[in-house]
Write a structure and sequence with these properties.
Helix content: 25-40%
Radius of gyration: 24 Å
Bound molecules: nicotinamide-adenine-dinucleotide
Distance between the termini: 80 Å
Number of helices: 18
CATH architecture of the largest domain: 3-Layer(aba) Sandwich
Largest sheet: 7 strands, mixed
Strand order of the largest sheet: 15-16-17-14-13-19-20
Number of strands: 23
CATH class of the largest domain: Alpha Beta
Number of domains: 2
């Protein structure tokens, strides 16, 4: 007889790799970790266990000032480097992100609560892809925009350098001048911490800018691990500075007079505050804000595929996704079938330990976010929607919400109108394509949408009328570094990804 122990003793799964984390992190300023000016630290915890992972510096105005000054000092040399040299640094960052992908994925799941399957297969590979992609643009900026141009760096006086004339220079002189914007203040949220950092830093660095990045207060760790990568690859001091802290630190970054461009990803509420705060300052601004995206299922769609798309659309990353398909519109004739299949599928989702590779739905990012979600669920019930939640338990510590949905939701209901940012789906029905479009667009947001149908011609007709920056056709939540992403209406303006993502990091002379 075979000893069972011999068969079933497996080697540690790769997910068992624990990242080397410090007990305490300072800010990353001028190429080194430094103590915060006021000596204040806060704790970042694992939302699945409520255990403290590390202490992180609380950024004051003095810290932000120091970071902006470091970025400004680094700007002339970095922006004047030949593009191919900047590219080498960005490629090195990309390769190091790939090499450390296990550690980064585990840290991301520990700090933010997302399933390791997602951080391992989505967040980290896409983050590396963004650095690779933008590294490729660094020496081609003269070709990136319609009409082309000549890319030049920024001088000590803060003004673009005069383009050098090469043989045949007279023609060159007529080219428009493309130059970096300068110092970029970049504030990011907690739902895709490493990925959002790469979306911000990749294009900014490729286009010769220097940066001050402020990660979200509940998920600062992977940005700080990225800072360690910058040290390793010897990125010149001050080119990227990372100041940790909460909203006040973010406000100090965006309001600092030494910042030339603000790139913000986060809630619409904070985005509006930022737009107010910097109005009239001449700073460039891009806002990637919230959403309430529709997923529209027509009767001719492959229903099983659409159900997978609905699940992927709303329960991916516990619904902490700006473009989550949080409103589903199903054509009346197939509503019963779709909802029955959806519930069956929801019942199969495994909720629990984010570090278990079988987990589908991990921990809610913070206690505060869990209470927000619970408030919305109560509001949905008061508004009269029929509530259904997948059965099963959740771990005894940590913050959890099992996937749930509301049926028979009225357009006026809170769960149909407001971004919940949790695993809560509002299901509604429609009869005609015109009604689907009208109801899908009945929101202040305009970030993304999904359309499920067998007919290619219908897909393009519908997509044309949807107020959404991205429309996915028979799929959902697909991202690629070469593809622009961004919103309309209260979902913000500006694009990240693709050549479009470079545009807000350059100025045209
Ligand atoms: P949030 O707006 O509360 O915080 C985002 C970041 O802004 C954090 O780093 C926070 O510390 C900082 N901040 C808070 N107040 C600030 C202020 N007054 N000035 C400057 N910075 C400030 O958002 P969140 O809860 O962290 O993230 C969730 C939101 O982000 C959702 O609304 C989601 O839709 C949105 N989001 C949008 C996209 C997109 O690409 N459109 C992507 C991811 C997340």
């Amino acid at each position: 007889m075979i000893e069972s122990a011999g068969i079933f003793e497996y080697a540690t799964a790769p997910e068992g790799v624990r990242p080397t984390l410090r007990d305490r992190y300072g800010h990353f300023i001028g190429g080194a970790f430094v103590e915060p000016a006021e000596g204040e630290y806060f704790r970042t915890i694992n939302p699945a266990t409520e255990e403290v992972i590390a202490e992180v510096a609380e950024g004051s105005k003095a810290d932000v000032d120091r970071a902006v000054n470091a970025a400004r000092e680094a700007l002339p040399a970095w922006s004047a480097l030949p593009g191919v040299e900047r590219a080498k640094y960005i490629y090195r960052i990309a390769r190091r992100v790939q090499e450390l992908s296990r550690e980064l994925a585990v840290a991301e799941s520990m700090d933010g609560g997302k399933p390791i399957r997602e951080s391992r297969d989505v967040d980290v590979p896409l983050a590396a892809q963004h650095f690779f992609y933008y590294a490729g643009w660094a020496d081609k900026l003269g070709y990136a925009f319609a009409g082309g141009g000549k890319f030049v760096g920024i001088g000590e006086d803060g003004a673009p350098l005069t383009p050098a004339l090469s043989p045949g220079g007279e023609r060159e002189q007529r080219h428009r001048v493309i130059s970096p914007v300068g110092v970029c203040g970049q504030v990011i949220p907690w739902n895709f911490p490493l990925l959002m950092a790469s979306w911000k830093l990749g294009p900014a660095l490729a286009a010769g800018n220097t940066c001050v990045l402020k990660p979200a207060e509940t998920t600062p760790l992977t940005a700080l691990m990225l800072a360690e990568i910058f040290e390793e690859v010897e990125l010149p001091a001050g080119v990227v500075n990372i100041v940790t802290g909460a909203g006040a630190t973010g406000a100090a970054v965006v309001e600092h007079p030494g910042v030339n461009k603000v790139a913000f990803t986060g809630s619409t509420e904070v985005g509006k505050k930022i737009a107010h705060a910097i109005a009239g300052t001449g700073k460039k601004l891009t806002l990637e804000l919230g959403g309430k995206s529709p997923n529209i299922v027509f009767e001719d769609a492959s229903i099983d595929q659409a159900v997978e798309g609905i699940v992927q659309g709303i329960y991916f990353n516990q619904g902490h996704v700006c473009c989550a398909g949080s409103r589903v519109f199903v054509q009346e004739s197939v509503a019963g079938e779709v909802i029955a299949k959806l519930k069956r599928r929801m019942g199969e989702l495994r909720v629990g330990d984010p570090l278990d590779k079988n987990t589908d739905v991990g921990a809610i990012n913070s206690a505060a976010q869990l209470s927000t979600i619970e408030r919305y669920i109560d509001a949905g019930k008061s508004d009269g929607g029929a509530f259904w939640q997948a059965g099963g338990g959740v771990p005894s510590s940590g913050y959890w919400c099992r996937p749930c949905l509301f049926e028979g939701v009225q357009p006026s209901a809170v769960v149909a109108r407001e971004e919940i940012f949790g695993p809560v789906l509002a299901v509604m029905t429609f009869r005609t394509p015109a009604e689907a479009i009208q109801r899908a667009n009945n929101t202040p947001y305009g970030l993304a949408a999904g359309v499920w149908t067998d007919k290619g011609s219908k897909i393009f007709e519908i997509a044309k009328w949807l107020d959404a920056g991205v429309v996915w056709l028979n799929t959902y939540n697909k991202f690629d570094a070469a593809s622009p992403f961004g919103g309309f209406k209260e979902s913000g303006f500006g694009r990240e990804g693709g050549v479009h993502g470079l545009r807000s990091y350059v100025t045209f002379g």
